[in-house]
Design a protein that fits this description.
It is a single chain. This protein is of the alpha/beta class. The chain contains 21 helices and 18 strands. The chain has a five-stranded parallel sheet with strand order 11-14-17-10-18. A four-stranded mixed sheet has the order 1-2-4-3, covered by helices on one side. Strands 5-8-9 form a three-stranded parallel sheet. A hairpin with a 4-residue loop joins strand 15 and strand 16. Helix 7 packs across helix 19 and helix 18 runs parallel beside helix 20. It is elongated. The C terminus is likely disordered.
């Protein structure tokens, strides 16, 4: 038989489309060509494959070898097809049984010695193979990741020779086994002294999935508070954790940012530096990779020193904050990545950081303060539900013998109950309600309607801000176990928008 067909998987965003590796042997001068829109790393596979086959004591055919990676219009990159190409050559030359390749998919990069090396994007491929009803063979270094898919029969190999022995029926490959899930105790709210309003805002943000802006002087605890939010969120469901793990899997394991199979159930907390570019935030590159907002999917994205960020980088957040997805388009290809994250941002009230502090140490001119605050656009502030002023604490409140606050576990219990009420009512958390769902689930008494209208007029808020106030009020009512939004719930929600009045006026 001069023709062999081997199944593999490409990487396209967080998807893993099927790729058929077709190998044909023909007469003529010995040569090897790879077609099907291969990039440089794929074209170089012919040298890796030749050396690996020879080191495994197989014969490399001295014939004209054509390798077609179908579909031809799908870009192919990386060394993930090396194993499939090598097996196709061996099957086409009759050195391994062709029928053994029928219901199996192969992924892995080959070293010159025939060693199988780990690749990125194995989890999406394992999930896709499970849906297709195929077995999967991956390098031993990817076994724990492939096992997370659960529904797929995944086997691991260390060398090309081991895989060929399995296909020839001489031995069996070990089954991929998931690592034990490691539970790491995160930062606890017990460490937060005082700041009752900020603690309350964190609880509301966790219960409803709302975005949060912390405004306060240096050292008042903004970063400390933000780092405690993941510990207040309910544990991610298996579907949510797999979706987040799939993004980490394709994020570039070769650069040390890949998936940790032992901690895949943790909600992510991403805190990029304020010098990060727009591409670093939303993702991109010639071969689109997920950015920070996608790596924070189902978790928290913390942006410290918000006015210090480049304006263009901040503005790219506006659409993902609404839609929960980001599409990275390039000339050759495009990719869509999930980006349903909670934004926590922190900023100082002025360039020196002490405007409004009781010490009176701020010496910033009014124009300087307005320019500083104008670095953040009104439309971006509109999309942040809770704006909280975090004051400087008196030194006496920071003594070690002062009582700490409530622990994260107790707060998380209330958050879980509130989210259960939201899912029972609308099937989603309050921050994700559409306008129609907001109207249906956030009904007010007539006097409360008038109160909200007066607040919108006096604070000069937009219609978007008004709907966000309603969703926050609905979350406050859920935390209180109330079926209806009471006046107290609405006034508290309005209070969380008052802090941005000066910022918007300056902008």
């Amino acid at each position: 038989m001069n023709l062999a067909l081997v199944h593999s998987r490409a990487r396209s965003g967080v998807r893993a489309p099927a790729v058929r590796v077709e190998v044909h042997l023909a007469g003529g001068l010995p040569s090897m060509s790879i077609v099907g829109l291969p990039e440089a790393a794929v074209r170089e596979a012919k040298d890796r494959v030749r050396a690996a086959i020879q080191c495994a004591q197989f014969e490399f055919p001295q014939r004209r070898i054509t390798v077609n990676l179908a579909p031809a219009d799908l870009p192919k990159d990386g060394g993930r097809y090396d194993l499939a190409i090598a097996l196709g050559i061996l099957a086409a030359s009759g050195q391994i049984p062709l029928e053994a390749l029928t219901s199996c998919e192969f992924l892995g990069e080959l070293g010159l010695t025939g060693e199988l090396r780990a690749i990125d994007g194995v989890l999406p491929a394992a999930l896709a193979a499970a849906d297709a009803g195929h077995r999967l063979v991956v390098p031993a270094g990817n076994g724990a990741e492939a096992a997370l898919a659960g529904r797929v029969e995944a086997r691991t190999g260390r060398t090309l020779l081991e895989v060929c022995a399995m296909l020839s029926g001489q031995k069996s490959l070990p089954e991929a086994v998931a690592l034990p899930v490691v539970r790491v105790a995160g930062p606890d709210m017990l460490d937060v002294r005082g700041q009752a309003q900020a603690r309350r805002a964190l609880e509301i943000a966790a219960a409803g999935g709302h975005h949060l802006l912390l405004i306060g002087p240096p050292g008042c605890g903004k970063t400390l508070l933000a780092s405690r939010l993941p510990g207040l969120l309910p544990e991610a469901s298996e579907a949510e954790a797999l979706e987040t793990a799939a993004i980490a899997s394709v994020s570039g394991g070769a650069h040390g940012r890949g998936l940790d199979p032992a901690r895949w159930r943790e909600r992510p907390f991403r805190s990029p530096h304020h010098t990060a570019s727009a591409v670093a935030l939303v993702g991109g590159g010639a071969d689109p990779r997920p950015g920070e907002i996608s790596l924070a999917h189902q978790g928290v994205l913390f942006l410290d020193e918000l006015p210090e960020w480049e304006r263009r980088a901040l503005e790219v957040l506006r659409e993902p904050l609404e839609s929960g997805v980001v599409t990275v388009s390039r000339a050759a290809r495009s990719a869509e990545f999930p980006a349903r994250f909670q934004l926590v941002a922190a900023m100082n009230p002025c360039p020196c950081g002490w405007a409004g502090d009781s010490s009176g140490r701020c010496r910033c001119a009014g124009d300087a303060i307005r320019r500083y605050r104008a670095r953040i656009s009104g439309p971006l502030l509109d999309r942040i539900d809770l704006h909280i002023e975090v004051p400087r604490l008196p030194p006496s409140h920071l003594r070690p013998d002062q009582p700490g606050g409530e622990c994260s576990e107790a707060i998380r219990a209330r958050v879980v109950l509130a989210r259960q009420r939201q899912h029972a009512r609308s099937g989603r958390i309050n921050a994700q309600l559409s306008q129609a769902e907001t109207t249906a689930t956030c009904r007010l008494h007539e006097r409360d309607h008038e109160l909200l209208e007066r607040a919108v007029e006096s604070l000069q808020l937009s219609a978007r801000s008004m709907h966000r106030i309603l969703r926050v009020a609905r979350t406050i009512a859920d935390l209180a176990g109330s079926e209806a939004i009471a006046t107290a719930h609405l006034t508290e929600a309005i209070g969380y928008r008052r802090a941005d009045r000066g910022v918007q006026a300056a902008a």
